Amino acid sequence: MKLTIIGGTGLIGSKLVRKLRGQDHEAVVASPDTGVNTLTGKGLTEALQGASVIVDVSNSPSFEETAVMDFFTTSTRNLLKYAAAAGVRHYVALSVVGTERIPDSPYLRAKSAQETLIKSGGIPYSRDAVLRVHRAHRR
Fold this sequence. Notes:
- By secondary structure, the protein is of the alpha/beta class.
- Strand 4 (90-93), helix 4 (106-119) and strand 5 form a beta-alpha-beta unit.
- It has helices spanning 11-22, 44-48, 65-86, 106-119, 129-138; strands spanning 2-6, 26-30, 53-56, 90-93, 125-126.
- The protein has a five-stranded parallel β-sheet with strand order 2-1-3-4-5, sandwiched between helices.
């Protein structure tokens, strides 16, 4: 199976890529380091070509209120658009359990907005599969 890992060079993403490749999956690493920019869409067409699953473990470079919201909403809209065009069949996103319970946190509000976009994005989705993979990897 071909999976595109958004944020695949980061701490969680790089571990996930190794684990998936170790299970004989084709894991495409997509990050600014590999020429993929989720904010502009640059490189997304190529990174998602032929992928069955998109896994988003990216994170905002800034946790400032406006910047973090802009990052998660803009990148998620772009990912949904390009994933739909590529025929991606499933969207997995790393999130935080209970985002809606701490509305005073700008970061958690942004993650909640990301979840809302994904839920209404038209692609079947999961938000906890990556957490299970990551937890299993730490053992």
